[in-house]
Amino acid sequence: MGSCFAENIGNRLSDNKFSILVNPFGVLYNPFSIATSIQSLLDERIFTSNDLFQQDGVWNSFSHHSRLSDLCIDNCLNKINTEASAAQKQLKECDLLTITFGSAFVYKLKSDGTVVSNCHKLPEKSFNRHRLSVDEIVDRYKQLIPRLLTLHPEINILFTVSPIRHLKDGLHENQLSKATLLLAIDQLCGLFPENAFYFPAYEILMDELRDYRFYAEDMTHPSGVAIDYIWECFCRCCVAKKSLQFMTLWQEIQKAVNHRPFQPESSAFQNFVRKNEEKLQILSSQYPAIDFAKEKEYFRDLLSE
């Protein structure tokens, strides 16, 4: 859960058949919004029409990213509560909760002081902007983490700080924001040493990959090469050897699934499909808990043409 950097790593894990759920509330940037989202999952909260507002004909939630917004209020609520229900179930069963902080700045509604997860392009005058302190973040998670451990005593919580710079805050303010997040995480890892850990995604990009070729065209987000490098570091640090062995075997089959031939009816390609179908059957027998139904159907359809 967290900033769009969480989605980069989360989607890589999903592609490698890990049982994972990524950002059920959409992209979240600040620690308070992430904490509120987790709290609502622990409370098994059901969102209602009272939690929505309409802007330019679109229904939105201040607790969710705009990807869950909709022109129809019922569709909006259905998307929000479907995601929440799946996340509630996942949270009870997952071994690892990864939280990526993006910014220490929060936006509070002037009307009631609520910290919003997304401003949904409302006028700036509707909000008060505030940079959270280290103590504010630590105090919030000192209350939240024990609740998580009560639900699932064995859960590990992996904190990261997004390397994506929030240039709209200004370069100096961005640095202060990231420093606040880093100090808060350091304290939380000290308070919960058995369950809370830190992965240095921010430091890898800032200090190890310092050249601008590691940034996308906007000069803010990491490039594909940088994400690949950080992903490799993540795998070395956080993925078990048995899972790494599976990933090596799976990536061969995944390449075959993504391959688009010019002549699918040719004998060479049909043999290619049969070989990979056999590899998939072997892998499926070795890892019976993993769902390969989609890939099996794909190969069957190719052979039946």
Folded structure, characterized:
With 305 residues, this protein is mostly helical. The protein has two domains: 4-239, Rossmann fold, CATH 3.40.50; 241-305, no CATH class. It has ten helices and seven strands. The protein has helices spanning 4-15, 31-42, 73-93, 134-151, 171-191, 201-208, 224-238, 241-258, 267-286, 293-304, and strands spanning 52-55, 58-61, 96-101, 105-109, 127-131, 156-161, 196-198. The strands form three sheets. It has a three-stranded parallel beta sheet with strand order 3-6-7, covered by helices on one side. Strand 1 (52-55) and strand 2 (58-61) form a beta hairpin. Helix 2 (31-42) packs parallel to helix 4 (134-151), helix 8 (241-258) runs antiparallel to helix 9 and helix 9 (267-286) runs antiparallel to helix 10 (293-304). The two termini are 42 Å apart.
Task: Annotate the secondary structure layout.
Blueprint: H1 4-15, H2 31-42, E1 52-55, E2 58-61, H3 73-93, E3 96-101, E4 105-109, E5 127-131, H4 134-151, E6 156-161, H5 171-191, E7 196-198, H6 201-208, H7 224-238, H8 241-258, H9 267-286, H10 293-304
Parallel strand pairs: 3-6, 6-7
Antiparallel strand pairs: 1-2, 4-5
**CATH topology type of the largest domain:** Rossmann fold
Rg on CA atoms, Å? 22 Å
How many beta-strand elements?
7
Distance between the termini: 42 Å
Structural class: mainly alpha
Strand-residue proportion: 5-15%
Helix % is 40-55%
- Largest sheet, order of strands side by side? 3-6-7
The major beta sheet can be summarized as: 3 strands, parallel
What general outline do the C-alpha atoms trace?
A: globular
CATH architecture of the largest domain: 3-Layer(aba) Sandwich
Low-confidence stretches: none
Q: Averaged pLDDT, please?
A: 93
Number of domains: 2
- What's the number of helices? 10
Overall CATH class of the largest domain: Alpha Beta
